[in-house]
Amino acid sequence: MAVYKRRYNSYTGSLTPEWSRFFVLTRYAFADLFKSRSFVLLLILSIIPCLFFAGYIFIANNKTVQLLMQLRSADLFTVESQYFMIILTVQNQAAFLLNCWVGPVLISGDLTNGALPLFLSRPFTRTGYVLGKLAVLGLLLSVVTWVPCLLLFSLQSGLASNGWLWSHLWMIVPIVLCSAIWILMLSLISLAVSAWVKLRIVATGVIFITFFIPAGFGEMFNAIMGTYWGRLLNFSYMFRLIVASGFRDRSGLLGSLGLEEIPVPAAWGALISVCLLSLVILNARLRARETVRG
Amino acid sequence: MTNPTIELDGLEVQLGNRTILHGLTGVLKSRAIGLLGPNGAGKSTLINTLLGFHTPSKGSARMLGLDSHTSGKALRSLVGYMPENDAFISKMSGVRFVRYMAEISGLPPDQAMERAHEAFVYVGLGEARYRPVGTYSLGMKQLAKLAQAIAHGPKVLILDEPTNGMDPPARKRLIELIREIREASDICLLLSSHLLRDVEETCDEVLILRNGKIASICNLVEERRANRKFLELETLGAEATFTSSLESLGCECAVFSNGRIKVVMPDSVEIREVFKVAADRGVQIRRMNHRRDSLEDIFLNAMEQTGAADGRL
Description:
A: mainly alpha; 69% helix; globular; B: alpha/beta; Rossmann fold; Alpha-Beta Plaits; 4-stranded antiparallel β-sheet; 11 helices; elongated; disordered C terminus
């Protein structure tokens, strides 16, 4: 089918491995995203706090700079688990905003003009489709959450005195695990919303609503029933609970937490349930369209 | 022995509580198969089932020997599909869209790019390939859908109402393309349409559906070969000697009032011989209608048949 021949020929060349084809979706989505200046700006803004955190770590570990800036070690917040808890919380909020910008367009663009049957009429499954889209958010949100967090952890390990790394190595687990559940939940929620709502602004609104309305209902439930279980509907609260428990924090640094009330496994359960619900929604929505007439 | 193109074995498909396809059974062996039927007959549902989009509630459907349900992925790796409805990503340029689809089918990026350009030029959209698909006219969108269906070089091309919304020249061009693709390779073609001409011009075998049941399976090649030629004449001054002369040529004649004669001609007799007999007998031929049994007749007969109610031939 060479252009100059203008004749149809079948393809006889090599094929890519089936397992890798979901990544085609990810690659194309990233190519589209990086064409948008707004996205690039938002991504840069999401990473900027890490530069301040890095600067603080540098100052906290450098006596010369402290002297030059006329700071006393006692005035500085020590770089311990609580510091990384703050970094993680800030970066995960940035991830939330980034997700609200990127997530809504990932699937709706394919559904608006019925492109989904074209994907599914190939040797490509719905699982592959969701994985491809999920990988976009997974990679992107990782870049602003646990990856910079681990880099800052490495920086602190390098600058701190001997032994700091080994005594704080356990923090890698909560950094990665807490980010993972937050990223997974955000990604699945925004993909589910993107599969239902075509307009970006509406979809972004729906994602915000998903986080705030159930929390409100939960508080109403608590007030009426005189219980605290309604907080399970407050996903941000559940996440903070998981972070605080992961970093063994009982100081209430992230606000008043009901660590004695809501069991941490229940918080995990709530977030995993949201992920499963989003998958159910995606499963219902991502089907090759069928028109039944008559 | 090669596998039949399509095998249906008691295929029943339900969507919700509604049965759309009722126990279809049949074997279609030709390389170019037309799927005919009025709106709501179940053509698109059958295509979607063959693609594995719907799970049969009973029976099975196979294409090139592969079961649509159990070997769906393997089957879809052989297929290029052009859906009936709009199917594109509006903000992507045409060539990027086709490249994207080819890569999903498994072509490496450089090969996909090359094939996308070739496919676009081949369908006649070379000049428009860098424009976003959303800005294309309806006819161009149809051609872009065809380009994405052929770019990865499928073994089976499934076209669902390919000429929908196209003006006559664009339709003619698309039909020519489909015939060209069919003749230039060993590709199998499944074309669904309610336009009889589209099917007649491109297919060798026809599956006619009605209310989710098979109304008829007809091999057009054999039908054309077996069909005898019919002439409908309106004459002035025709007497018995005219018809007997025609019969001596091997024709069968039926005489009606007002000089109307129906003549069934064997393949060996040409129309000019009828004119010659008329001239010899001094008969004026005022009007002549020459036609074969067309697909339209086959289709209408199938629609009128009541014996197909059990879904079998």
